Amino acid sequence: MIGAPAQRRAGHTDLQANIVEFCRLLRERDLLVTPAEVIDALRTAELIDLVDRTELKLALRSVLTARQEDLAVYDTSFEEFWRARLTEGGDDHFSSREREARGAGLEQTRDVTDQAANDAEEEQRDGADAPRYSPVEVLARRNFGSFSPDQLEEISRALLLIARRLALQQSRRYRAARRGQSIDLRRTFRRNIKYGGTILEIARKRRKLRKPRIVLLCDVSRSMETYSTFLLQFIYALQHTLGRVESFVFSTRLTRVTEYFRAGDIFTALDRISREVPDWSGGTRIGDSLHSFNKDWAPRVIERHTIVVVLSDGLDSGDAGVLAAEMAELDRRAARVIWLNPLLGDDSYRPVARTMRAALGHVSLFASAHNLESLELFGRELTL
Question: Nearest to residue 233, comparing CAs of 182, 273, 192?
Fold first, then answer.
């Protein structure tokens, strides 16, 4: 029960062990925390300022909750479990072992993975009824076309996990930090001018979490019917984790669906889109749809750092010349244009359709979107 006092309190000896124990507590309270989320939580702890109580709470919440109803349970459990472990602004609650491990890089990552794997094995031996696999790893390479309708909820959760991982990716840029893993040479030299150049104070920096601005244009025509439901779930997950996302769907006409995806439930959003979007599962006019976007929406939603992503099989019954011209306009406005084509999951596929060939000259990345693995690989490209 949520209201029951926590049976365990965080100790003062090992941060990794405490995070694993905290994950166990959440699982006992019916949160969907698998060994994969435990690993993600441990890796997330490497990227944040562990002295900042709020930052730790929010970072772990981003990887350990997947549903709206999880938030209250998580917040209550966090306060109960970590009350004895975290004190505002202090550093003495970190053991020397923990401080040393925080700078250990790849070695720590291996330790983290082993810790979570051993924890999962221990629970299996004890007969724990928690999930014993990561949905992402198990389902990653299966083509979306092979899933049955009753697996949609499982896929939706896996897509959310992928989106949360993408949200925690590090930027190429740095910001000042009290406990960054890198030395900021410029600030260090400037700070020590008062000591005559003798280095007495070290300034540190760490990578920013990147929050790119993304515009997603998803083909929902008849030829994309096998994949569009899964791709829309991915768009929903990105919009709920990255935040700076504008979403559109098109077949013969373009419709903005950003507001639809603000619903608390993906299946409610999908139901509304399928009922209210004109020509759902109809024909395809990619060029005409992009013309509408460039004319009516691009000036409002694209800036020089925006990444535009088109999700389509490129099978268009319209004029290839129109598509080429509109893709050139997108390329001119955006920082990058990415085209995800689920047909690339077939080794025999070649982009020989005239409209697809017309578009390729204006994209910086042409990649597949036929399974979870391909979407996760795409996510690594969301950088400028």
Answer: 273
